[in-house]
Write a structure and sequence with these properties.
The mean pLDDT is 88. This protein folds into 2 domains: 3-193, Endonuclease I-creI (Roll), CATH 3.10.28.10; 221-308, no CATH class. It contains 11 helices and 10 strands. It is α+β, with helices and mostly antiparallel strands and 309 residues long.
């Protein structure tokens, strides 16, 4: 079972009041049904979703849709469910706010007046044309697919009502409304009442965030260690230069002492070197003092090289 399927089955188990039933059906029929003057036909791949739609239609209109089964052999063999309505088509479509004066329209504000009704509409949309990538296998991505830009902008507005930001992308002759933010996908799953799927999503999200944080820390540590080693090697080069040219005596004894310790511990950081010197000599020195002495050493080396040139 895919992650999208598990979410749809959870949505199919949620309860609705009569108004929410109409709102969910409105979205589902609008975005997934084949509508003609004489019939409404809905093809559904998931058995639980098919039962959900059948039940909602029966409750809302006191009509039992004709249901047939078909084996679909596309990529893999699977059973699909076809629900067909052939009576009171105009009345059903007007009640669902899909048709007005025999013209297809988007729901007016009065139709989706509460957050609960807007949520039910988004549930119906997800059941009809929604999909989501499994966070375990890929990045965060949830999408809805609709036919027109006007419909896409309408869905965008509904999502923004819940502070969920999405984007629109034209794909062939259809429009995709997609969400990439993990936090906003979580908010939408919570809105749908898909709690088990939300827990699964959040577990994967926390694991991935922790893993990314550990990787960033490891990368920083490796980069810092490489920098320390590179700095230590440059210090050894400068100290050896001073010794080869009998320049060590030009530095005071404290600096010479620090340089001798550097020869013994070329791989440690300034702070670690300061701690070692403080412990072994009994004379406190800090990281800034170490840095100051190395600056003096570097300046002496550069001055001598300039004279040689």
């Amino acid at each position: 079972m895919t992650f999208a399927t598990s979410i749809k089955e959870e949505i199919a188990n949620t309860t609705l009041n009569p108004l929410e039933t109409i709102c969910e059906l409105s979205a589902f029929i609008r975005f997934d049904a084949y509508i003609t003057k004489n019939q409404i036909e809905v093809t559904i791949e998931n058995a639980k979703v098919a039962r959900r739609v059948y039940k909602l239609i029966k409750e809302a209109f006191n009509i039992s849709p004709q249901i047939t089964y078909r084996l679909q052999r596309k990529l893999r063999t699977r059973q699909v469910y076809i629900l067909t309505l052939t009576s009171n088509i105009d009345n059903i479509l007007e009640r669902l706010n899909i048709l007005e004066n025999n013209k297809k329209t988007l729901p007016e504000e009065y139709f989706l007046s509460t957050d609960e009704e807007k949520t039910a509409y988004l549930k119906g949309l997800f059941l009809a044309s929604g999909s989501i990538s499994d966070p375990k296998n890929s990045g965060y991505h949830l999408e809805f697919v609709v036919s027109t830009k006007k419909e896409a902008l309408y869905i965008l507005q509904l999502l923004q009502n819940f502070q969920i930001n999405a984007k629109i992308l034209k794909r062939s002759n259809r429009y995709m409304i997609y969400i990439k933010s993990a936090e906003m996908i979580s908010d939408l799953l919570r809105l749908f009442g898909a709690i088990n799927s939300l827990f699964y999503f959040e577990d994967i999200r926390i694991y991935r965030d922790h893993k990314n944080m550990v990787n960033r820390l490891n990368n920083c540590e490796i980069a810092n260690q490489e920098k320390i080693i590179k700095t230590g090697l440059k210090h050894l080069e400068d100290i050896n230069y001073l010794k080869e040219h009998d320049l060590m005596a030009l530095l005071d004894e404290r600096i010479q002492e620090v340089l001798e310790y550097r020869l013994k511990y070329p791989e440690v950081s300034f702070q670690e070197l300061a701690d070692i010197i403080t412990e072994e000599t009994g004379r406190p020195i800090g990281k800034s003092g170490i840095n100051h002495y190395f600056i003096k050493m570097k300046k002496l080396v550069e001055q001598h090289k300039e004279k040689e040139e």
